[in-house]
Amino acid sequence: MWAIRATSVFDGSAFGTEGATVIVEGGHIAAVEAPSFALPVECPVLDHPGTLLPGLIDTHTHLVGDSALGALDRVAGYSDDELETVVRSSLAAQLAAGVTTVRDLGDRRFNVVDRVAQPGEPLVVAAGPPLTSPAGHCHYLGGEVSGEDEIRSAIALRIDHGVDVVKVMASGGMLTPGTDQLGSQFSDEDLELIVDLSHAAGLPVTAHAHALVAVRQALRAGVDGIEHCTCLTAQGPVVDPALIDALAAAGIVVCGTAGGDVRELGPPPPHIQALLDRMGLTADQVLGQRHAFFAQLYRSGVPFTCGVDSGIAPIKAHGSVPASIAVHVAAGIPLPDALAAATSVSAQVCRLPAKGMVRPRFDADLLLVDGDPRHGLDALTRVTGVVLGGTVVVGASPPEPDATGR
Questions:
Q1: What pLDDT sits at residue 375?
Q2: Of 40, 182, 318, 382, which one has the fewest beta carbons inside 10 Å?
Q3: How far is 43 from 399, CA to CA, in rounded Å?
Q4: 8-state DSSP, 129
Q5: Domain boundaries along the sequence of the chain
């Protein structure tokens, strides 16, 4: 048993009015007490003058991506050993940023699903190769399907590999030239079959959807989550209140994959610029509309997470969850709700009921940062400690008490 005395605590739902003494035992949180709680003499104590939070959760990552430009383009050419090196580096970067759980939504041929986790790594919830149409978005990851027979075989294969979630590319994507970001990749019948077969096996389904028609199609098919949810049309993003209300009523979780500022990369690639030209918009206009969209989701009660789509580019590097939190706060979402979207809400989405909260009987996956994010979000980037399953994996362990118990 050991304890952390923290000056400030966010418990996964709200900030406390004072700090707390969090007692850790056997990988779990045994108790959360007042800052002055009298501990046994033999209990080691880590005094933390900053803020204690649950470990962050990135609900949209690609561990096979090395966070450099063209990350996913290189995946098909990697050997298994090279892929493993990238995955380990990705997990290390996530952990260093205080991310203790990730949901991988696209590996190559189940390499993330099938790998043996190493001690001290974040927990991985994984989908395997995303289902996509022939030559569709991210087809090089190995998830191409066409027609009922191939869909049934693909879902059966994922069940055999023990995936935690099924990912489907309902629309084309920004990183796969030649795919249609404004259209659907599957028929209604095929998408519904994917959802029905997955649900029958007890697996949730999340749909990559940039196009408005694909968002509406995913809603009709009964998916559990929508990634990006950009609602693109030839006239630009179109988000009508009825659609938002329907998402809220269905309890569909939206991961807007907010992260760094795409303008930092310079001029958009030709196929992205062609899409902007087709919609008659600039990158600045699209980003402004995204902020308004996040605020609209929040006001309407649509559950959302702060997944990043991490690993695909420098502005979406592994460990960028604090940047996603900042985007949501900049959109007008209160800080506690944005933090909950990266902790307790994400734990529910990942079906991990014992994670995401600083409360008794929850897993001791904890993040210690220098300062208080209520006084500046940059505090979230100043990681001083990470606890994974009750073990300090980043930062200093608590000192052993002396003879007086101090």
A1: 97
A2: 40
A3: 10
A4: S
A5: 2-53+357-394, 56-349
